Amino acid sequence: MQSLKNRKSAGADSMSYGKRRQLEPELVPFMVKSFSDSNTSGDFYPEWLRFYVKPLAKIPGKLEVRPTVSTHE
Q1: Which residues of 36-64 are buried (b: 16+ CB within 10 A; e: fewer)?
Q2: pTM as predicted
Q3: pLDDT tens-place string over residues 25-44
Q4: pLDDT band at 50, cuts 50/70/90?
């Protein structure tokens, strides 16, 4: 998490990377346990499996796009 850049937009959960770094001591053990439990049991939260990929213009008016992922349509 320390390698995350400050000036990147937040993900689908709207949490900034700066906030993630501040919460790292509490967040990482929870994330590791959650992913490990899911991997062991084969059960995943439905929200982890649902996402939408939308093209987002790199420069408005140009055809060059990059994918953006969101959890809602």
Answers
A1: eeeeeeeeeeeeeeeeeeeeeeeeeeeee
A2: 0.44
A3: 888 898 899 889 988 998 88
A4: confident
Structure-token pair, residue 2? 């320390």
Q: Strands (DSSP E) along the chain, which ranges?
A: 52-57, 65-70
Contact between 71 and 54 (Cβ < 8 Å): no
The residue type of 53 is V
Tell me how far apart the alpha carbons of residues 71 and 47 are, in angstroms, rounded to a whole number.
8
CB contact set of 72 (below 8 Å; sequence gap of 6+): 12, 52
